[in-house]
Amino acid sequence: MHPEISTSAPEHKVLGACPHDCPDTCSMVVTVRDGIAIKVQGNADHPATNGALCTKVSRYTERTYHPERLLQPLRRVGPKGSGQFEPVSWEAALADIAQRLGQIANRGGRSAEAILPYSYAGTMGRVQGEGMAARVFNKLGASRLDRTICASAGTEALNQTLGNKVGTRVEFFAESQLILIWGSNSIGSNVHFWRHVQTAKRNGAKVICIDPRRTETAEKCHEHIALLPGTDAALALGLMHQLITHDWLDHDYIARYTLGWDALRARALEWPPERVAAVCGITTEQVVSLARDYGEAGKQGKPAAIRMNYGLQRTRGGGNAVRAIACLPALIGAWRLRAGGVLLSSSGYVPVQAAALERPELLAGRNPRTINMSTIGDDLLRPASEAFGPAIEAVIVYNSNPVAVAPNSTKVVQGFAREDLFTVVLEHFQTDTADYADYVLPATTQLEHWDVHSSYGHTDILLNRPSIAPLGEARTNTQFFRDLARHMGYTEAVFAETDESLCRTAFGDKVDFEMLLTQGFAPLPVPEAPFAEGGFPTPSGKCEFFSERLARQGQDGLPDFVPNYEPAGADARYPLAMISPPARNFLNSTFVNVKSLRDIEGEPLVEIHASDAAARQIADGAVVRVFNARGAYECVARVSDRARPGVVNGLGVWWRKLGRDGTNVNELTSQRLTDMGRAPTFYDCAVEVQRI
Ligand SMILES: Nc1nc2c(c(=O)[nH]1)N[C@H]1C(S)=C(S)[C@@H](COP(=O)(O)OP(=O)(O)OC[C@H]3O[C@@H](n4cnc5c(=O)[nH]c(N)nc54)[C@H](O)[C@@H]3O)O[C@H]1N2
Ligand SMILES: Nc1nc2c(c(=O)[nH]1)N[C@H]1C(S)=C(S)[C@@H](COP(=O)(O)OP(=O)(O)OC[C@H]3O[C@@H](n4cnc5c(=O)[nH]c(N)nc54)[C@H](O)[C@@H]3O)O[C@H]1N2
Ligand SMILES: [Mo]
């Protein structure tokens, strides 16, 4: 047991941090009695957390002490994917894994690139994430992983427009007079932001939601614009058209602090409201009225702020959509006020010391290839070639559940089912991915390890102290990689660094570590109104409507509407557009196996509008088959006005094995990538729905 954990007092509290992939990154207070965590609560002293956790994380003890927690290392005995395992000792598992990886890496040439790490944000911790792990993969010379599965289209778009992932501070939305919630279900996925919206509403703000689905957020806004998925750039260009024709522009701001206005102006004038309405599947009045609200707020000097979330960048034109929306605040000079502007992510403010954590010098001059995690299905099935390099022979999975979350599951499953693929999975539970492992290794949860966290919503750094001892034989991810390094014969001192030391390494002297130790969080220095007087971190220092860098890559230098790969519509072979946004009580595929949360969600379902249901003789509660050329998924239909005509909503990434027919929504999604950032197009997916 760790010395910092007091075991003398029968009951005590430990400060931690929520590890999940969510903009809120809450400060947690864990109550421990006799070495057992009995309660997890939101820290009342941390302003962003405000004393409250979401429903799912307040069940974190239920997840930690879940009867199905993996508590010992397992070795596969049956065929791949059969889920048949036998217990094995850590030492035996490590020795075998080291030997297998060594055999691949030591064949010479680029053979080490046949080894692939696969990880994402199961924990957002800097220590249990890519620190020690990256050191081992760098030393091996393994393939690198392009971590695109969530946010990279929006990231690239913000970089090209504002210069970084920065923007309006969340807490200042409370002072806004007009809030556009664009492609985000704040109440479901970012609930601590919603508090600021409520404050703004009480102070007279108007709140408008732009989302194909009538979410719990949309129904609490003053207006809801239910556009077709993937048409946001058209709407943004249409707003610009109206701002221009009504002269609701801040000419001074545009002249001083933007680049490419004449060209953008010409592009926007191609988007009169009628055209926008037709493309977006909304009314002309909705376009005009939204533009008037936004334009007049600017003219009257009222703060207007846009909260985007990643939901709107999961279609082919996702990067262009984010770029078009990110241009809007400059047009009305909204950046002049601290409660104006736009926020997609605040992570650009985070001074993470990536090189100190990951040690790229261990590559020793090698430059391994990069594999895109979003095309893992195809890539696992790809033979060796000049262009691709060696076929993938080994995958080490941690902090991720690719068999459930990656697009085009048929391919992903086929890939992981290869008998000649050596797969190691570090997990809390026997997930869909763990079923395909050769070794399943029990990992610690956030209550059992040290870590340090940043947020992509607020701008504080948080420390997570362990509150209980590891359960069973669970080990931290870092300990696995340290042990693996030892078994591989790596002797560099960097492979001995402890987790507490890694917590300090993550932000170096950029964060007051003493403050983290005493109060659990430390605010970063961030400007109040970052672009009130320009100063964008782009090459030109301006808000780049026109991006020279994009033009040089052969892309359109201006934002444009890029239609979906899979346009739905009555004439299409698959006439319904399917989106698959998060379920409120799950976190991607995490928590699906926590029964109390699964009971709230019920069972896998698609929401379908009454008109689309009637045309297919589908009654509420009927079992349906959702299908396209890639696959089929069986679930229950919920006939509901949460779905607009022409669009069905397949909520949540269920565990395949807990689904009705052993599949989930990703049976239907494709491996095609976005216009920018090489990201998946989960919400660009045409389907048909049929009663069974
Ligand atoms: N409870 C819960 N919270 C979560 C998650 C979870 O799974 N559950 N996931 C976390 C993760 S990984 C992330 S990346 C973040 C953000 O995750 P996001 O995926 O951004 O999730 P949401 O905030 O729910 O926003 C998605 C919203 O976008 C809408 N949408 C879909 N397509 C379009 C479109 O083309 N245009 C527009 N305008 N809207 C569209 C969806 O209907 C949905 O309401 O949330 C995190 N928070
Ligand atoms: N159809 C569809 N697919 C989607 C999405 C969608 O909206 N629609 N959303 C996408 C998005 S935004 C994202 S971010 C991805 C998310 O995909 P993933 O990053 O794979 O996220 P999770 O499904 O939450 O799986 C994380 C796993 O990590 C494990 N884990 C957590 N903490 C630790 C730890 O400390 N150590 C170890 N070893 N394991 C740990 C958990 O038990 C869990 O099984 O999914 C994407 N997939
Ligand atoms: Mo995500």
TrEMBL record:
Spans through the membrane: none
Its signal peptide is: none
| Superkingdom of the source species | Bacteria
Write down the SMART domains for this protein, in alphabetical order.
Molybdop_Fe4S4
Q: Could you say which cofactors this protein requires?
A: Mo-bis(molybdopterin guanine dinucleotide)
Pfam families cross-referenced by the UniProt entry: Molybdop_Fe4S4 (PF04879), Molybdopterin (PF00384), Molydop_binding (PF01568)
**Keywords on record:** Iron, Iron-sulfur, Metal-binding, Molybdenum, Oxidoreductase
Residues forming the 4Fe-4S Mo/W bis-MGD-type domain are 11-68
Check the record and name the InterPro entries matching this protein.
Asp_de-COase-like_dom_sf, MoPterin_dinucl-bd_dom, Mopterin_OxRdtase, Mopterin_OxRdtase_4Fe-4S_dom, Mopterin_OxRdtase_prok_CS, Prok_Mopterin_Oxidored, YoaE_C
Concerning its family, UniProt says: Belongs to the prokaryotic molybdopterin-containing oxidoreductase family.
Q: Return the protein name.
A: Anaerobic selenocysteine-containing dehydrogenase
What broad taxonomic lineage does this protein's source fall under?
Answer: Bacteria, Pseudomonadati, Pseudomonadota, Betaproteobacteria, Burkholderiales
